[in-house]
Amino acid sequence: MDKSLKIVLLLLLVLGSNTVFAQKLGYIDSEYILNKHPDYKVIQQELSKVSAEWKKEAQTLDQEIKELYSQLKAEEVLLTEEMYQKKLAEIKIKEKTAQEFNSRVFGIEGLYYQKQAELLQPLQSKIYDAIERVTRRNNLAMLFDKAAGPSAIIWTDPRHDYSEFVLEELGIEENN
């Protein structure tokens, strides 16, 4: 009975492993796909333009604060302690305003990241739909993203890279 139990377990193991090995795996490089997509370049340009405007505004605020400090330093001798503290308080308010602006625009959930998400969302949806079609067409059980960090992928065989198929599904030719 002990020998027949071992044979049955061995058969189950072999049959079970066949289904595991029969699953097809693949990977893509989403960063590569994004950089190849022409819409991504347009989005990057739009983000750069908006970001430059906000950075200019932040620099203007910083410059005003520096000028106020310089002006205070120059007038320090002429001011009474009360006048000095009043001007210093005004500068501190301006500094707080500048910090709030930077947080509101460039903070974790700031306007810049909201704008980025707004602009990228349609493109990401389009790419995800193409990935799904490629995955179904090639009967893949799993598809990994090489660009996602930190990744569990240590080594990849280029034969299993489906990035080009996704680009093809998006209608993007290699010469871009």
UniProtKB/TrEMBL annotation:
**Positions of transmembrane segments:** none
Q: Which SUPFAM superfamilies match?
A: OmpH-like
Keyword Coiled coil tagged: yes
Q: Which residues form a coiled coil?
A: 51-78
Give any single GO term for biological process.
Answer: protein stabilization
Q: What GO cellular component is one of the record's annotations?
A: cytosol
**Gene3D superfamilies hit by this protein:** Skp domain
Q: Which domain of life is it from?
A: Bacteria
Molecular function terms, GO-annotated: unfolded protein binding
Question: What Pfam families does the database record attribute to this sequence?
Answer: OmpH
Hey, which family's this protein in? Answer: Belongs to the Skp family.
Which PANTHER family does the UniProt record give? CHAPERONE PROTEIN SKP
Q: What is this protein called?
A: Outer membrane chaperone Skp
